[in-house]
């Protein structure tokens, strides 16, 4: 790599070189330990004599800025750079806006690998032991070969046709979604899909109706865009449609597996929701985040399948079926939104990375995804059953499970007053990660309890972890 130095004219060459190298070292552009090019190489690069470069290096070495190491070369010496006062957030004209963003909580922030506890009941996380490493490796190798053959140009903003076609076939088969590849935009996770839809639908002050309790990152996203987010209570049939406010421009729901409580939306409520959205001229976001894992009852169609008026946008993700780190999601868009969302995607990031797109397209088309889902379904079903048994057994004095038929988390509501914050604190001390329900409530009264994820915790770890939870509950009363 060439060192960035610019020489103007033929006068004061040594002085020009000295000043530029000194400024680069003082500013930190040339960090301590960085190796400078040999004098002969830098002289040839700049079109000056080798003596000019050697003399400059010697001067900087004398001043302690450079150090020569015999047989190795010339390096930037370790030193404390001069400090200048940098602008703080309060100095800036945008201080209020920065404070607003910094104040946003992170209720679903996943721990890092180093900070994760031995027993994690984190919702939305999957077990790395279930991930099909060999199949994914073969698909990634195929993707690398395809990329090596490409033209070096940007890819399609909407996503690779191969992946969009594979997604269309998969969700038609597994969720009854009515779409073709031309209705799909591939995104960086479901969260970007929500962001793009909100960008083109909302303005500051727009009313958004969403389930309460509900998915907090979606609520925070809409609020950050200046929307007036109104929580609509849910009951055992889902969102209470009659309480969706007049003037709502966007309605966000999780009908197949209500987040975080878990119950599915009834057929009658789905029909009422579609009618209400059409009446308001509102768009509905159907976030179908983990309903491919179903354990009881007859499968239900997606809300999008029932939509005959083009008011539903179906959002899906592969973070729950594969790995959160994959960061690939998608939106199935009605015709009214497609062009605007595509433009927003183009302006945001041009397109999602093509390497994982090619790999995922092959992974789906080769049948690996369905095979993986079936394998995980069996594992998750066993974990779910064991947690339900414990909640109905020795944990029954404190908690009751909310009936849920899909996904890989459940809600456990308090039957008696429990200090959830203290329970979580004491659980962390014995390496158990517990997570509260209260962070998902907005306008409706909080129902205290826990959200219990069983995607990341291993089956054999469930009983030891819940034994520790039981013991803590007995201690704190």
From TrEMBL:
One Pfam entry name: Aminotran_1_2
Keywords: Aminotransferase, DNA-binding, Pyridoxal phosphate, Transcription, Transcription regulation, Transferase
Designated name of the protein: PLP-dependent aminotransferase family protein
GO molecular function: DNA binding; DNA-binding transcription factor activity; pyridoxal phosphate binding; transaminase activity
CDD domains with a match to the protein in the record: AAT_like (cd00609), WHTH_GntR (cd07377)
UniProt entry tagged with the keyword Transcription regulation: yes
Domain HTH gntR-type, residue spans: 11-79
Stated family: In the C-terminal section; belongs to the class-I pyridoxal-phosphate-dependent aminotransferase family.
InterPro entries: Aminotransferase_I/II_large, HTH_trans_reg/aminotransferase, PyrdxlP-dep_Trfase, PyrdxlP-dep_Trfase_major, Tscrpt_reg_HTH_GntR, WH-like_DNA-bd_sf, WH_DNA-bd_sf
Organism annotation: Pseudomonas veronii
Positions in coiled-coil regions: none
Lineage of the species this protein comes from: Bacteria, Pseudomonadati, Pseudomonadota, Gammaproteobacteria, Pseudomonadales
């Amino acid at each position: 790599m060439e060192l960035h130095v610019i020489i103007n004219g033929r006068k004061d060459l040594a002085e020009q070189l000295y000043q530029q190298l000194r400024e680069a070292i003082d500013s930190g552009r040339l960090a301590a330990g960085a190796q400078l090019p040999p004098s002969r190489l830098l002289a040839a690069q700049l079109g000056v004599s080798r003596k000019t470069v050697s003399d400059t290096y010697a001067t900087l070495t004398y001043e302690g800025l450079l150090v020569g190491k015999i047989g190795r070369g010339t390096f930037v010496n370790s030193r404390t750079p001069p400090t200048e006062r940098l602008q703080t957030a309060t100095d800036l004209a945008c201080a209020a806006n920065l404070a607003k963003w910094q104040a946003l909580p992170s209720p679903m922030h996943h721990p890092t690998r180093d900070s994760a506890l031995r027993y994690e009941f984190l919702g939305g996380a999957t077990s790395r032991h279930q991930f099909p490493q060999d199949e994914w490796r073969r698909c990634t190798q195929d993707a690398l070969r395809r990329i090596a053959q490409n033209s070096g140009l940007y890819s399609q903003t909407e996503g690779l046709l191969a992946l969009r076609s594979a997604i269309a076939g998969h969700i038609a088969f597994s969720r009854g979604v009515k779409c073709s590849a031309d209705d799909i935009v591939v995104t960086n996770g479901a969260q970007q899909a929500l962001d793009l839809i909100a960008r083109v639908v909302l303005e500051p002050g727009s009313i958004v109706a969403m389930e309460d309790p509900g998915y907090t990152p979606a609520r925070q996203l809409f609020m950050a865009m200046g929307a007036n987010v109104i929580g609509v209570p849910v009951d055992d049939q889902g969102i209470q449609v009659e309480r969706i406010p007049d003037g709502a421009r966007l309605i966000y729901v999780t009908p197949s597996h209500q987040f975080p409580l878990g119950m599915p939306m009834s057929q009658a409520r789905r029909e009422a929701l579609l009618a209400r959205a059409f009446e308001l001229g509102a768009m509905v976001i159907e976030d179908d985040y983990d309903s491919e894992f179903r354990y009881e009852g007859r499968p239900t169609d997606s809300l999008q399948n029932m939509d005959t008026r083009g008011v539903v946008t179906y959002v899906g993700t592969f973070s729950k079926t594969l790995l959160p780190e994959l960061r690939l999601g998608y939106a199935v868009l009605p015709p009214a939104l497609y062009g605007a969302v595509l433009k927003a995607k183009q302006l945001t990031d041009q397109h999602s990375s093509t390497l994982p797109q090619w790999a995922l397209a092959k992974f789906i088309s080769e049948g690996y995804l369905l095979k993986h889902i079936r394998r995980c379904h069996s594992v998750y079903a066993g974990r779910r059953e064991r947690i339900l048994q414990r909640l109905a057994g020795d944990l029954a004095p404190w908690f009751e499970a909310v009936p849920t038929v899909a996904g890989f988390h459940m809600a456990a509501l308090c039957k008696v007053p429990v200090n959830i914050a203290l329970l979580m604190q004491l659980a962390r001390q014995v390496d158990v990660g517990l997570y509260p329900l209260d962070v998902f409530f907005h306008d409706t009264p909080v129902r205290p309890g826990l959200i219990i994820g069983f995607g990341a915790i291993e089956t054999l770890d469930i009983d030891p972890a819940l034994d520790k939870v039981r013991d803590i509950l007995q201690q704190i009363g």
